[in-house]
Automatic annotation (TrEMBL):
Sorted UniProt keywords: Cytoplasmic vesicle, Membrane, Protein transport, Transport
GO biological process: endosome to plasma membrane protein transport; Golgi to endosome transport; Golgi to plasma membrane protein transport; Golgi to vacuole transport; retrograde transport, endosome to Golgi
Organism: Piromyces finnis
UniProt-listed InterPro entries: Adaptor_comp_med_subunit, AP2_Mu_C_sf, AP_mu_sigma_su, Clathrin_mu, Clathrin_mu_CS, Longin-like_dom_sf, MHD
Any one cellular-component term (Gene Ontology): cytosol
Keyword Transport applies: yes
Protein name: Clathrin adaptor, mu subunit
Domain MHD, first and last residues per copy: 169-426
Domain of life (superkingdom): Eukaryota
Length: 439
């Protein structure tokens, strides 16, 4: 991993800030970047985050708002590592400036140069934790009268946590959040389903504690030669990604998640399960058109999860023709409204208990008469929801232990949440012969 130089450009390719770390590539080579981008756009190619010149100069870049953040290298470097560094650079800048855009770059030249010097040395990434950087690089750090001493964490093995942290009450909060991605065709068949999960933590712990987290991980049970009970099941996680604080060697050896956590809020890990997911909130729509003058909808929503669980803030968005007007609604639960900017019915149910089923009937006038194109692509139905104390995958936190040399007692809190991700159901064809009851 070697980056020769880092640049921040505007959308026209003008250099706002640059930092040359190695001096092995002439800075003027940056002038070749925008022509490469424009040439790729003209050829209607899918833009790659890596562009190369004929003389072997590589540009690795990330586009954010109205900026390009770019690394230039001539070595056979690890492209993924460089791109990850650019994303970390964006995170750190957003921590400092809240919004990262051209104006915030122009207003903060001094602090940006100091961050670039601390986060990379001779082309190699160094400290990238914003909380540690904020301890000794502040908005006033350009005043050279006082020599600021970096915290021990910068040279310590645990670079993401400072020493000497103290709390009157030691607590750790753990949230298991799962998002369900689902695509159902117009015939009711599930085309795609997956679960994207994340374990997020808030740690308010004194000293340098070590935490150990145990999950109902299938591989862990198999490694230990244990069997699961009939009530609990083991899950097999894919694409597992950890925060840098996790000791990967221990996880690879015995599937133990052991770590010294950063202070405050962070994401411990993320995972994916490509499993067949039963639609949690099933939606059926019957569309009835009447000779181009009016259109009726019957929308049925059913909660296909256990009765002891409840989905909060459910929003079902059903597309309607762009020229629809004079809406009328009748629903058995919640409230319905017409959103003309979306050309859609928005049905909101504040609390949707498991096993329940509700119906909404809607009627619209169609003032303009036009031939309906059966092949015209219709937007899908989208569903938003959040179900607390529930996980689709069945993941469970078996234990969360806090060990610190002072021996204090810590209070762990665990919460489960399932929510929608890309949750869509395609619209059925309209029915022109059946008759629905009018409102």
């Amino acid at each position: 991993m070697v980056a020769s130089a880092i640049f921040i450009l505007d959308l026209k390719g003008k250099v706002l800030i640059s930092r040359n770390y190695r001096g092995d590539i002439p800075i003027r080579k940056i002038e070749k970047f925008m022509p490469l981008v424009l040439a790729a756009e003209e050829e209607e190619q899918t833009l790659s985050p890596i562009l190369s010149t004929e003389d072997g100069v590589n540009f690795l870049y990330v586009k954010h708002n109205n900026l390009y953040l770019l690394a230039m290298t001539k070595k056979n470097s690890n492209a993924v590592t460089i791109l990850l560094f650019l994303h970390k650079l964006i995170e750190v800048f957003k921590e400092y400036f809240k919004v990262l855009e051209e104006e915030s770059i122009r207003d903060n030249f001094v602090i940006i140069y100091e961050l670039l010097d601390e986060m990379m040395d001779f082309g190699y990434p160094q400290t990238t934790e914003s909380k540690i950087l904020q301890e000794y690089i502040t908005q006033e750090s350009h005043q050279m009268e006082v020599q600021v001493r970096p915290p021990i964490a910068v040279t310590n093995a645990v670079s993401w946590r400072s020493e000497g942290i103290k709390y009157r009450k030691n607590e750790v909060f753990l949230d298991v959040i799962e998002s369900v991605n689902l695509l159902v065709n117009s015939n009711g068949n599930v085309l795609r389903s997956e679960i994207l999960g994340a374990i997020k933590m808030k740690c308010f712990l004194s000293g340098m504690p070590e935490l150990r987290l145990g999950l109902n991980d299938k591989v862990m049970f198999e490694t230990a030669g244990k069997t699961t009970s009939s009530k609990s099941k083991a899950i097999e996680m894919e694409d597992v990604k950890f925060h840098q604080c996790v000791r990967l060697s221990r996880f690879e050896n015995n599937r133990t998640i052991s770590f010294i956590p950063p202070d405050g809020e962070f994401e411990l890990m993320s995972y994916r399960l490509s499993t067949q997911v039963k639609p949690l909130i099933w939606t059926e729509v019957i569309v009835q058109t009447h000779s181009g003058s009016r259109i009726e909808y019957q929308i049925k929503a059913k909660a296909q999860f256990k009765r002891r669980s409840t989905a909060n803030n459910v929003t079902i968005t059903v597309p309607v023709p762009e020229d629809a007007d004079t809406p009328k609604f009748k629903c058995s639960m919640g409230s319905a409204s017409y959103a003309p900017e979306k050309s859609a019915i928005v049905w909101t149910i504040k609390q949707f208990q498991g096993g329940k089923e509700f119906i909404l009937r809607a009627h619209f006038g169609l003032p303009s008469v036009k031939n309906e194109d059966e092949n015209q692509k219709k937007p899908p139905i989208s569903v938003k929801f959040e179900i607390p104390y529930f996980t689709t995958s069945g993941i469970q936190v078996r234990y969360l232990k806090v060990v610190e040399k002072s021996g204090y007692q810590a209070f762990p809190w665990v919460r489960y949440i399932t929510q929608n991700g890309d949750y869509h159901l395609r619209m059925p064809e309209s029915v022109k012969t059946a008759k629905l009851s009018t409102i």
